[in-house]
Amino acid sequence: MPCYALKANYNPTLLKLIAQNGLGADVVSGGELYFARRAGIAPEKIVFAGVGKSEAEIGQAIQLKIHSLNIESESELRVIEKVAQRLNKRVTVAVRVNPDIDAETHPYISTGLHSNKFGVTRETAINLLQRAAKHPFIDPGGIHVHIGSQIDHKEPYIETAHYLLDMHAELEHLGINIHFIDLGGGIGINYNNQLDEAENKVTYISNILPALLKPFKNKKIKILIELGRSIIGSAGFLVTRVIYIKNTPQKKFIIVDAAMNNLLRPSLYQAYHQILPLRNDHTMIEKADVVGPVCESSDFLAKGRELPVVNEGDFLVVTGAGAYGQALASAYNLRPAIPEYLVDGENIDVIFAGDTVESIADRYKW
Ligand code: LLP
Fold it and tell me: How many C-beta atoms lie closer than 10 Å to residue 207's C-beta?
């Protein structure tokens, strides 16, 4: 069962399209659970992950009878037991195992190592499933794993798949018959060249996903997968206007009207996003830093980037902004959220109106 990870982009219009295509949802908060339900995703297709679910969020999930809660600690299991008992409702859980496998991605988005806060060791996972099996309201349904994000090669996934199969066999041996394995997400997109990717249909997902699923072929177990970026990342572009060109003795700065509050990925993960002029009239290439108006030196979209010569007033397109773009945005420097448009052939639809300074101001006591 493919589940869409709402954290990548939770625009309701897109969620509805995703729901219509039959996908379930991977949520990590009561807010995402609300959006998933309201967009029409059935509770039995929703999985709830995260290391710090509150008692209230656990209660909402149990009341809704979602597919499963992915538990990440003994303390969390204790709360789930208590809430299920109080509500007198059964709940299916999966224990998130941390396989100590290196996804070889940016350290901030690597999650499958023992040094990360996520999941529990294999030994603890087995103990927790054994404990859950004894509880009258808990179904120890599965095991869950998520080793990281923006992973561009299949090897860590194949290693994870074999690790899980081995663990599944061990659980069977111990008399615990789980009925699903949740493989998490993390398949990357090719940020270096989004346009070629669309043309050639060469994507990491078409390379990685079959290799990940293959070890489970002929096994009688339900497989779940939680994908965010590989579904929505390539669908979004950030369009920005050049405000000023600034030449210094050191370098050239292209100052644009989008900033780290709109697309945080370059500042936070040193992430590369392809940038192209909307109209490419120039053949001459120059090297420049593309920066925003926010008062931080960490506010940049690209550093030392070779770009066709652009002028003040020109538009630039930042590709691969569909995932973790607006979702990570803030109003820092009191810069209101920008609108989102859905482009379908000739049709352009406003699917998020954005904020204004006044709409932000109205949320405060003055
Ligand atoms: N499942 C779990 C348990 C996760 O923690 C995540 C992402 C996903 C699924 C979906 O991962 P995806 O398929 O989108 O890689 N803000 C960062 C990425 C953080 C990912 C957090 N967890 C970035 O912009 O690169």
Answer: 14
Q: Is the pTM of this model over 0.70?
A: yes
Q: What is the pLDDT of residues 142-179, one digit of tens each?
A: 999 999 999 999 999 999 999 999 999 999 999 999 99
- Render pLDDT for 223-278 as a digit per residue (tens, 0 to 9): 999 999 999 999 999 999 999 999 999 999 999 999 999 999 999 999 999 999 99
Cβ atoms 279, 252 nearer than 8 A: no
CA distances from 218 to 13, 211, 290 (A): 37, 14, 51
Atom of ligand 1 nearest to the CA of 106: 25
Which residue of the set 295, 334, 363, 364 is catalytic?
295
Tell which atom from ligand 1 comes closest to the C-alpha of 186. Answer: 15
